[in-house]
């Protein structure tokens, strides 16, 4: 026998094992406590929207609700009285059009940057990329005055144009890397057969970008949906406001409005991102990887 | 070897070469115009809506604003001199530095702690989802909810009064001393999940062999972490630190929503200070100068990241 088993100190191994088990149990308990603390605000949010305003005032804020029916009244109040309906529909419009157009334009630009050889490529790339490095505070005042002059202030088209522009640079960065790595054999073959550059992009490049298109679209949609500062500066009328500034104005304007309705409004405002998270968790984590790389 | 001079048809060949070069140049010019065609929508939108405002903002910060003439009057550095002499600016700057300090240390420390604890545990996936969950609430919606948690008759006080057995009515968001820590806690609740997920992704890339070797040798968890994991995780930590610092300098939504009733809210951060000076008090040129200061800080941090990243890349190679 090559190994003399009798020389192994079983006592030490057993003690090691016991220590490790104890540590694991400690970690488990600690993580349980942390998780409960982490989820407590969600618990509060959910029990609140399930209570009627009267019930909320009468009961402990963390007490369980007596039923789920008040939820519908709260959501209806939020949708109609808090004008969240306008906000939700506006943000859907801004998010879908802004993110969709932005990612499409970004793929076009990345195609130009990655798949043609010409001098000055770095310059154009840096020009587009410079759009992501400044803090938002540097845009606010000039945008406000320019929009005022052009009549774009407080209009839907003004919001869509700005959201489209600010969502372009990051996807350009991602798609440039993606398209640089893609093989160019198909392009050559297509050009040989007399395919125009325009058709080449639409029939060969674009269909190959479906995966990153969806991931980038979701990322940018979420950003537009969650934006507060630009909507606060560039809109005034409730018909144009985005969902976040509607929520913020609603919470601030009526101090004695029922908290259950405000909670329902915040839940409504977060619904798309929550759904997105649960349905597309894998995509989300990939998006994170992309944005951190 | 034959040199072109010895060849009878040297002229012809030279001609051919220049024709090739000419063709090549024409090809490149054509592909440049095609590429510019594809890039033009992006270039136009980015230039008009992002780059032009930044340049205009810098210009405004060197002017004085008058109600009827606008930004025509040159002011030189006067707005920046006003900044330096204003105690509100110093206070906003100090508060912002507190924000950055906290968001530099705590998300990384808590995220690292949770990430290292979770590594290899059965409940890793579940816990990852739980800690990341606050991230899917919009910052504004989370702020609205925490506003009620901190209200004088809110959840936090009701929990505290359960322990003290007498009613507690602290206005967490109305006191000079509690407002910033309270908002920071809500902010951390939302942001630690991201730090944790990024660190777990980094940990997943750390090779298992040295960890197992250390474990077999009888190293404690702390020793393994300190001498094996931490050095290998350094690049990820750098990314998380820089992201946290940039987020700390530019945090706006949480403060704006939660401190809406706080009387001294404009000095809570540079971003809020800039917003109030511009859109509530119409000190446009002065507010532009605050934005420029913020821009210089953010660009410097980004520049520092590029340098450190480069150094770490060279170290690991």
TrEMBL record, chain B:
Pfam entry (one): BPD_transp_1
Q: Where is the ABC transmembrane type-1 domain?
A: 93-305
Q: Does the keyword Cell membrane apply?
A: yes
Query: What membrane topology does the UniProt entry give?
Result: Multi-pass membrane protein
Keyword vocabulary terms for this entry:
Cell membrane, Membrane, Transmembrane, Transmembrane helix, Transport
Q: Does the keyword Metal-binding feature in the UniProt annotation?
A: no
What stretches pass through the bilayer? 33-55, 97-118, 130-151, 184-207, 228-252, 284-308
Under the cellular component aspect of Gene Ontology, which terms does the record hold?
plasma membrane
Where can this protein be found? Cell membrane
Q: What is its main location?
A: membrane
Could you tell me which PROSITE patterns the record lists for this protein?
ABC_TM1
- Any one GO biological process: transmembrane transport
Say which family it is in: Belongs to the binding-protein-dependent transport system permease family.
Query: Would you tell me the protein name for this molecule?
Result: Sugar ABC transporter permease
For this protein's source organism, the top of the classification is:
Bacteria, Pseudomonadati, Pseudomonadota, Alphaproteobacteria, Rhodobacterales
